[in-house]
Amino acid sequence: MQNETNWLAKELARDCRTVEDIQEKLNDLFKDTIQHVFEAEIDNHLGYKKHDNEGDHSGNSLGRKSLLFGNLLLKLD
């Protein structure tokens, strides 16, 4: 696990020049992680994956979603 953590830290820091760059990268990483967790959770809850034919005509919303964590607004795809 430590090797993966070190690799991820190096990858994130590669293009960063300022503290704001680091914050932006971390926000993107957090957003993507939350997105994957929610997708797995909803797939499990519904019993089928996104875009699966099994979900046709189910009435699920096609609109965009967003979450607010303190001052951080995450727009989910």
UniProtKB/TrEMBL annotation:
Highest taxon in the source lineage: Bacteria
Protein's recorded name: IS256 family transposase
